[in-house]
Design brief:
heterodimer, A: mainly alpha, 3 helices, about 0% strand, flat, B: mainly alpha, 7 helices, globular
Chain lengths: ~60, ~180
């Protein structure tokens, strides 16, 4: 039950970003790598955070 | 019996994880579980899930409480205190140190881009934490149905989560899970 609440909280926070495909992709990658890949958190962050920020930067530049 | 180096290893690991816990400590729960359950066997999967459930059902800073339970299991009361400090100490120190810089550049375009980049990764980690906790409980198909029901009810209604926790506790107490 408590795990379900945590998952639902994550999904609820994700909903406002459903119009951003890159956000959905990086959320899915973080979920998959951590939830099922059992990779260390530091590896996941070092790989995904710079790429996600870069994607957000590109999206921001295109929107201008 | 845990080795004498166990509390030091646990505390050091919690310090490292809390220092990179973007989005809150729940995002590092899968890593904590890997360390204390899979790697060292200090805590069983069921105990880890129980700590999570108890911590979630009590008001207050529940992740500090949960890590205190883990620390208690490894090294008794000193372990609980050390784990609690390791959980909230580093992020608090980093927050106080970084706040001035972050606030000074709050209107800078790059800060918005960094936030937009961090959010999806953090959300994915939160959902992964919930999934790992659900798998750690491993109480069969009834618990899986209950987890899915909790997700659906939370997303579809504005029901206070406390009712869901009480309902889950009651079902567990009646031996229905």
């Amino acid at each position: 039950m408590a795990a379900g609440l945590l998952i639902a909280t994550g999904i609820r926070i994700l909903l406002p970003h459903r119009g951003r495909p890159a956000a959905l992709l990086f959320a899915a990658l973080a979920f998959g790598l951590m939830g099922f890949g059992s990779l260390p958190l530091l590896v996941v962050l070092v790989v995904l955070v710079p790429l996600s920020i870069a994607a957000a930067g590109i999206q921001n530049a295109r929107a201008r | 019996m845990n080795s004498p180096s166990a509390p030091i290893a646990l505390t050091a690991h919690l310090v490292a994880l809390s220092s990179i816990s973007c989005g809150g400590f729940p995002t590092v729960l899968p890593d904590v579980r890997n360390f204390v359950v899979a790697t060292h066997g200090w805590v069983t999967d069921q105990e880890f899930a129980n700590f999570f459930a108890i911590a979630q059902s009590i008001p207050g800073p529940n992740m500090i409480l949960m890590m205190s339970f883990v620390g208690w299991k490894v090294w008794g009361f000193p372990g609980a205190v050390a784990s609690a400090f390791a959980t909230f100490g580093p992020p608090c120190a980093m927050y106080f140190a970084a706040y001035r810089v972050w606030d000074r550049f709050r209107d800078a375009p790059w800060q918005r881009i960094v936030r937009l980049g961090l959010v999806p990764v953090t959300i994915g980690l939160v959902i992964a934490s919930g999934t790992v906790m659900a798998r750690a409980a491993d109480a069969g198909w009834r618990a899986a149905v209950l987890t899915i029901a909790a997700i659906a009810i939370t997303l579809a209604t504005r029901l206070n989560p406390l009712w869901l926790l009480l309902g889950g506790g009651a079902l567990g107490g009646l031996g229905l899970l």
